[in-house]
Amino acid sequence: MDFLEDLYRQSHSTSEVDGVWVSTTDIKVENEWVLSDGSAASYLNWHTGQPDKEFDYDDCVQVWPNLGFQWNDVYCIYSYWFYCEYEL
Length: 88
Ligand SMILES: [Ca+2]
Ligand SMILES: [Ca+2]
What we know:
alpha+beta; Mannose-Binding Protein A, Chain A; 5-stranded mixed beta sheet; 1 helix; 5 strands; 11% helix; binds calcium ion
């Protein structure tokens, strides 16, 4: 996750603490975490106690700087920056 943390620090001031979306979700099957293309997520980096399913609709994943850049499951409606991957 150091790579994503480095990207965050390059694009945000130190005073910002916005979350960043990663393309992992369990919106189709609860607690079955997959990528946006439907393939199984091979990497998970949950913060301690997450995913906590605080609400039934917490189906998206944010990287949260205040949680040491580890993951938290949250409601998908929030507006955050996002990480995406593409082949060069
Ligand atoms: Ca969920
Ligand atoms: Ca959560």
